[in-house]
User: Which sequence fits this backbone?
C-alpha cells in the first residue's frame, strides 16, 4: 500500500499558483528526493503533505485515506508524518532531551519515564547522550539539526518529511547530518525530502523528482535522472547545479 | 578585475586615546560603593547647607513625626503603616486577576478561529477604550456609577470591591497588549515545529509559545505592575483610607509632610524587592540557556 499519495495537488497563494497539479506516490521504505530551483514549490509541497497548508485542488491520501475528509483530525495526521525544517526550530526553552520528549509526552500522552529512556537511546545513537541536559543554543548547527531529526523520530512516524535540512549548515557539518539520514534510509525509513545535495540524492534516493515552477517535469531512478534525463528543463537544471 | 585595494603597509592603529579603567571585580565593587556614598552624601549635604534646609528637613524628615505617622495615635493621626496593607492586598488581588484576564484577552485577540470573530472585535474595542480613559474616571464610573445603577448584586458592593474592579478593568487592557506583543514575538518556526509534532493548538500555546513569551514579557509586565501598585493610592477617592490618604490626613492634622515621606518609603519597600527579584530570575534563565556574548 502507498504510504503517501498526492493526486493533482494544486496550491495557490492569492493569484499565484505555486503547485499546479502535482501527483506523486511514496511506497513503504521509499526515499524520494525533490529537487528543483529555488521557488519551484518544494517547501510548499512538503507543508501541504502534513496539512500545515490547505490545498486548493486535488487530493492527498495517507495509507489510502483521503486527508481532505472533513472527519480527519489534522493533529492525528501530523503525529504520523514528522517534519524537519531547514532552520532546526528546536525549542530554546527546553533542553535537548525535553525537546525530544515533547511530542510523545504531550501529543501521544505517553508516560514520561518510558519516553525519556527512549529519547536517551535516540540521543546515544547520534552521540549526544552526554549533552542531553544542555540547551539547544549551546550546540553546533549540525548537532542541533541531528537533535531535530531525532525529535521527529521519537514520534515513530510512518513518514518523515525533510525540508533542505542541511542548507543552513556550515559545509563541514553537512556530512554528519547526511550520514544520519543515510542510516535512516538504510533502515527503511520512508522519507520525502527536498534537497540541493545532488550527491546524496544519487546515493540514497529510490526516486528523484524534479519540480519546476510547480510542475513535476520528470521523475525516476537516480541513475535515470542524473545520467540520462530526457527533459530539456531537467538537463538545464542539472547543468546549472553540477557544472562540468 | 579592474581595481584592487592594497593592504595597508603598516599595522593599523589599535590604541585609542580614550583610556579605559581596568578594575578587578573586587575593586569595581568598592568603586561602585564609593561613588554611591558620594552621590547620596551630596544629596544629604544639600538638605543641610541649602538656605531652606532646616525647614525642609523639619517638614519632610522629622523623625518624630515620621514615627507617629507610621503607627498612628489616638490624637487623630491615621496610621500609614496600617493604610499600606490596604494597598498591598488590593495590589495582590488585582495582580492575580489581571494576569489571568489579560492573558485570556490577549489569547482572544490573537486566535484566528472564525467562531471567535465577534469576541475578537469586542476585545479590540475593550483594549482601545480602557487604555484611553484616565484611570481616575474609571474609578468614578465604577465606584459611583455602578451602585447608582441599582442592577442587583453588582450594585451592592463596598468601595474596596469597586476599587479593585476599576484597577482590574484598566490594567487588564494594558497587560493584554503586553502579552499579545510577547506571544507574537515567538518565531513562527516554533509554532510550525510544534504543530508538526502533532501538538494541538492549545498544547502548542501552553508548552511552546507561552513559556517563551513569558520570558520576553516579564520586564514590561513588571513595569505595569509597579504603576498599578502606585495607582492603588487612587482608591482614596472612593473613601477608602489607604497609605497615601492616611498620610494626607496626618499632614493636615500636624502641618507636617513627614507622613507622606513614610508612605513613599513604604511604596519603595514594595517595588524594589520585586524588581530585584525578577531581574535576578531573568539573568539566571539567560545564563542557563545562552552562550555568553560579552
Ligand atoms: N505563505 C506564502 N504566501 C505567499 N507566497 C508564498 C508563501 N509561501 C511560499 N510562497 C511562494 O511560493 C513559491 C514556492 O515557494 P517554496 O518555498 O515552496 O519554494 P522552494 O522550492 O522551497 O524554494 P527554496 O529552494 O528556496 O526553499 C515561491 O514563489 C514563494 O514566494
Ligand atoms: Mg524551501
Assistant:
Amino acid at each position: 500500500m502507498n504510504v503517501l499519495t498526492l493526486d493533482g495537488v494544486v496550491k495557490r497563494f492569492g493569484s499565484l499558483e505555486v503547485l499546479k497539479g502535482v501527483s506523486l506516490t511514496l511506497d513503504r521504505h521509499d526515499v524520494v528526493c525533490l529537487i528543483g530551483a529555488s521557488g519551484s514549490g518544494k517547501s510548499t509541497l512538503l507543508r501541504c503533505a502534513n496539512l500545515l497548508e490547505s490545498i486548493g485542488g486535488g487530493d492527498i491520501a495517507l495509507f489510502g485515506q483521503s486527508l481532505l475528509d472533513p472527519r480527519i483530525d489534522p493533529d492525528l495526521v501530523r503525529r504520523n508524518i514528522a517534519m524537519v525544517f531547514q532552520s532546526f526550530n528546536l525549542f530554546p526553552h527546553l533542553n535537548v532531551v525535553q525537546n525530544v520528549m515533547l511530542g510523545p509526552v504531550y501529543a501521544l500522552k505517553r508516560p514520561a519515564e518510558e519516553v525519556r529512556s527512549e529519547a536517551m537511546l535516540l540521543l546515544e545513537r547520534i552521540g549526544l547522550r552526554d549533552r542531553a541536559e544542555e540547551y539547544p543554543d549551546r550546540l553546533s548547527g549540525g548537532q542541533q539539526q541531528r537533535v531535530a531529526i531525532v525529535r521527529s523520530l521519537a514520534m515513530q512516524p510512518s513518514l518523515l518529511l525533510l525540508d533542505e535540512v542541511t542548507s543552513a549548515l556550515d559545509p563541514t557539518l553537512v556530512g554528519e547530518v547526511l550520514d544520519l539520514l543515510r542510516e535512516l534510509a538504510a533502515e527503511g525509513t520512508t522519507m520525502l525530502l527536498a534537497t540541493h545535495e545532488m550527491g546524496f540524492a544519487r546515493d540514497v534516493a529510490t526516486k528523484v523528482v524534479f519540480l519546476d515552477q510547480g510542475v513535476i517535469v520528470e521523475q525516476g531512478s537516480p541513475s535515470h535522472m542524473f545520467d540520462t534525463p530526457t527533459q530539456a528543463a531537467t538537463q538545464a537544471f542539472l547543468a546549472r547545479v553540477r557544472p562540468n | 578585475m579592474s581595481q584592487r585595494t592594497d593592504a595597508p603597509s603598516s599595522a593599523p592603529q589599535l590604541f585609542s586615546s580614550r583610556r579605559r579603567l581596568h578594575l578587578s571585580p573586587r575593586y569595581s565593587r568598592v568603586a561602585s560603593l564609593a561613588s554611591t556614598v558620594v552621590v547620596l552624601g551630596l544629596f544629604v549635604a544639600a538638605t543641610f547647607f541649602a538656605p531652606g534646609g532646616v525647614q525642609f528637613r523639619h517638614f519632610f524628615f522629622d523623625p518624630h513625626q515620621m514615627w507617629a505617622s507610621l503607627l498612628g495615635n489616638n490624637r487623630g493621626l491615621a496610621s500609614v503603616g496600617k493604610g499600606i496593607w490596604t494597598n498591598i492586598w488590593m495590589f495582590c488581588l488585582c495582580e492575580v486577576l489581571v494576569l489571568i484576564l489579560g492573558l485570556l484577552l490577549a489569547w482572544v485577540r490573537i486566535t484566528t478561529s472564525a467562531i471567535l470573530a465577534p469576541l475578537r472585535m469586542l476585545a479590540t474595542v475593550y483594549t482601545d477604550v480602557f487604555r484611553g480613559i484616565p484611570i481616575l474616571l474609571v474609578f468614578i464610573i465604577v465606584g459611583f456609577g455602578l451602585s447608582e445603577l441599582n442592577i442587583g448584586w453588582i450594585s451592592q458592593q463596598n468601595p474596596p470591591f469597586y476599587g479593585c474592579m476599576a484597577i482590574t478593568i484598566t490594567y487588564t487592557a494594558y497587560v493584554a497588549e503586553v502579552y499579545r506583543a510577547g506571544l507574537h514575538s515567538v518565531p513562527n518556526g516554533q509554532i510550525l515545529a510544534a504543530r508538526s509534532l502533532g501538538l494541538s493548538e492549545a498544547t502548542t500555546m501552553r508548552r511552546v509559545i507561552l513559556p517563551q513569551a513569558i520570558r520576553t514579557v516579564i520586564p514590561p509586565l513588571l513595569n505595569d505592575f509597579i504603576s498599578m501598585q502606585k495607582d492603588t493610592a487612587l482608591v482614596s477617592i472612593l473613601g477608602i483610607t489607604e497609605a497615601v490618604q492616611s498620610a494626607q490626613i496626618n499632614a493636615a492634622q500636624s502641618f507636617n509632610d513627614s507622613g507622606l515621606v513614610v508612605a513613599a518609603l513604604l511604596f519603595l519597600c514594595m517595588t524594589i524587592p520585586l524588581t530585584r527579584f525578577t531581574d535576578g530570575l531573568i539573568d539566571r534563565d539567560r545564563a542557563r540557556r545562552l552562550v555568553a556574548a560579552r
